[in-house]
Amino acid sequence: MRILVTGGTTFVSKFVAEYFVKRCDEVFVINRNTREQINGVNLINCDRSKLKDRLKNIKFDAVLDICTYNEEQLGFLLDALGEFDDYVFISSSAVYPQTNEQPFTESQPCGNNAIWGDYGVNKLKAEELLQKRINNAYILRPPYLYGIYENLYREAFVFDCAENDRPFYIPDNGEMKMQFFNVRDLCRFIEIILKKHPKEKIFNIGNKKTVSIKEWASLCYKAVGKEARFVSVDRSINQREYFPFYNYEYELDVSKQETLMKNTIPLYDGLKEEYEWYRDNKDSVYNRKPYIEFIDNNLK
């Protein structure tokens, strides 16, 4: 297949581009060439707002839109595209208001989520524009994505704590639930969509099982070969100062995904793979936050 991937040099888009290159597809990526490219891609070196006619004469079997965050960015890309068959847009679970009944289902109303603010609103506006302009586009709404090439200081923070035999500081009792999805499973699901063309166009995607903060951190430590020790932190202290997730518990109903892809990568297996990559590529995680400094200066 001839596939266009937006981005291609950072975390999810990088993994997606590499995944389909390894599948022997002809992969084009759009980025400004400020970071190393995946071997085997065809680079379209350009800001998406300045594409003009550079895509008009290329027929794509699939457009995998990983990096669009608002309707303006989406409009630039749609205006620039020529002929294509399938369009897959990676949206977000942030489009569901936090006041909705949980688990969130695809049929629920979408709108502002006070936790995510403009991020969720902008993703939703992009979804709405896409549905207006392309009737058969697919929209995927993931929870927290993780895996190889992750540049956010989330699992990497826990790995650092484990490597240095530090206790892990958790909000309250660590029972807040979180839901994850491995980037490899994301690619597997995209493959299924491109092959089967399901009638459903909007899918929540993610692991069926949620995990607590304590369970997630324990698995991260186990991936390093260590056992976690926990220190509880009172809720009066802003957890974003010392912990990489917001104080927000939610769950997606992924039953529609399960009708097409029944199994997902066990969380421990995915974390183990991510740690083995991180151990040799620590400089790739550049969005580091001073969690450890805050802990040492304020919580010890």
Structural features, described:
With 300 residues, the chain is of the alpha/beta class. Helix content is 34%, strand content 18%. The protein is built from 9 helices and 13 strands. The chain has helices at residues 11-22, 71-80, 118-133, 155-163, 183-196, 213-224, 255-260, 267-280, 291-299; strands at residues 2-6, 26-31, 42-45, 60-65, 84-90, 138-141, 144-146, 168-171, 177-178, 180-182, 202-204, 211-212, 230-233. The strands form 4 sheets. The chain has a 7-stranded parallel beta sheet with strand order 3-2-1-4-5-6-11. It has a two-stranded parallel sheet with strand order 7-10. A two-stranded parallel ribbon has the order 8-13. The protein is globular and about 60 Å long. The termini are far apart. 41% of the residues are buried.
